[in-house]
C-alpha cells in the first residue's frame, strides 16, 4: 500500500512522527510511506489553497517533502507533482490538539483529508486531544501512538469509501486526553458544538504604537451532548466522525423549497 501523510503543524512536528509510524504499519512490508507536509505551521487554515501565489516545495529525504503552503496544497502537490502514482490512502495529522466539535471547521488537518477526498481518495484526519490527563506525560501522543494503527485498520475494513454521491466521505478521528491504557474504546458520533464564545481576541500595542491582536481559543472541556465527538473524547473514547465536503444544510431544503420555490 502507498500511504501519503501530511499535517498542519509542520514537517518537524512530533505528531507527524507518530503518524509516520502508524502509516508504516498500515503500508506493511513492501509498502511506501510518502510525506508532503507544510514547511511551517499551518494550524487553523482550514481547507485553504494557495492559488494566488506560487508554492515552493523542497525534498528533505527519500519520499519526504516540505511545501510552503497549506495541508491542502501539500495533498495537491503530492498527487499531481511528487508521486508518480496516486496514493492508496491519505492520513493527515496527528494534530497537536483536538479537532472535535467546531474545531473541525477551522482545522488544516481536516482540510488535508478533505482535499484528498475531493480527489476520490480514502482519507482520515487524526488528532490528539490535549488536557490534564496527558499534558504532562512524557509522550502526550501516547493514546494516538498506541491505538492509531488499530483505528485506521478498522476504518479501512469497515468504513464506507467512495459511493454514488458527488462527495466521497472521509473520517475525522480524535484520541482522548489520557494515557493509552485508560482509553475506553472507540465510538462513532456526529460533530458536536461547544456552546461558548469560541475564539476571542488578546489585543496588544507594539513598541511603535500600532495595534495588534492575537486570536485565542475558548475552553475545550465543555460538554457537547451524548453521541458527539468531543463528549466521547472527554469520556475517554476515541471518536470517529464520518464527514463529507458538502456544506448543504439538507434538513432545511424541503422547507425552504416549499416557502420560496425552486428556480429552474
UniProtKB/TrEMBL annotation:
Nucleotidase that shows phosphatase activity on nucleoside 5'-monophosphates. Gene3D superfamilies: Survival protein SurE-like phosphatase/nucleotidase. It catalyses: a ribonucleoside 5'-phosphate + H2O = a ribonucleoside + phosphate. SUPFAM superfamilies: SurE-like. Residues 3-196 form the Survival protein SurE-like phosphatase/nucleotidase domain. GO terms for molecular function: 3'-nucleotidase activity; 5'-nucleotidase activity; exopolyphosphatase activity; metal ion binding; nucleotide binding. Belongs to the SurE nucleotidase family. It is found in: Cytoplasm. Its EC number is 3.1.3.5. Keywords: Cytoplasm, Hydrolase, Metal-binding, Nucleotide-binding. Binds 1 divalent metal cation per subunit. Pfam families: SurE. Its cofactor is a divalent metal cation. This is 5'-nucleotidase SurE. The gene is surE. InterPro entries: SurE, SurE-like_Pase/nucleotidase, SurE-like_sf. GO terms for cellular component: cytoplasm. It comes from Pseudoroseicyclus aestuarii. A divalent metal cation binds at residues 8-9, 43, 95.
Amino acid at each position: 500500500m502507498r500511504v501519503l501523510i501530511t499535517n498542519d503543524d509542520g514537517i518537524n512536528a512530533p505528531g507527524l512522527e507518530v503518524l509516520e509510524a502508524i502509516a508504516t504499519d498500515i503500508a506493511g512490508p513492501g509498502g511506501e510511506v510518502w510525506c508532503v507536509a507544510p514547511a511551517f505551521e499551518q494550524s487553523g487554515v482550514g481547507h485553504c489553497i494557495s492559488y494566488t501565489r506560487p508554492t515552493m516545495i523542497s525534498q528533505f529525504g527519500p519520499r519526504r517533502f516540505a511545501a510552503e503552503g497549506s495541508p491542502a496544497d501539500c495533498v495537491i502537490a503530492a498527487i499531481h507533482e511528487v508521486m508518480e502514482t496516486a496514493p492508496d490512502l491519505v492520513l493527515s495529522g496527528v494534530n497537536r490538539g483536538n479537532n472535535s466539535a467546531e474545531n473541525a471547521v477551522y482545522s488544516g488537518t481536516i482540510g488535508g483529508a478533505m482535499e484528498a477526498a475531493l480527489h476520490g481518495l480514502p482519507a482520515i484526519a487524526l488528532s490528539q486531544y490535549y488536557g490534564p490527563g496527558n499534558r504532562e506525560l512524557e509522550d502526550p501522543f501516547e493514546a494516538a501512538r498506541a491505538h492509531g494503527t488499530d483505528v485506521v485498520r478498522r476504518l479501512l475494513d469497515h468504513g464506507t469509501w467512495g459511493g454514488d454521491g458527488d462527495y466521497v466521505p472521509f473520517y475525522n478521528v480524535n484520541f482522548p486526553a489520557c494515557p493509552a491504557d485508560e482509553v475506553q474504546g472507540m465510538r462513532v458520533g456526529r460533530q458536536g458544538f461547544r456552546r461558548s464564545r469560541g475564539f476571542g481576541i488578546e489585543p496588544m500595542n507594539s513598541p511603535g504604537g500600532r495595534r495588534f491582536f492575537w486570536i485565542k481559543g475558548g475552553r475545550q472541556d465543555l460538554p457537547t451532548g451524548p453521541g458527539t465527538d468531543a463528549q466521547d473524547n472527554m469520556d475517554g473514547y476515541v471518536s470517529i466522525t464520518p464527514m463529507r465536503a458538502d456544506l448543504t444544510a439538507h434538513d432545511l431544503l424541503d422547507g425552504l423549497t416549499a416557502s420560496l420555490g425552486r428556480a429552474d
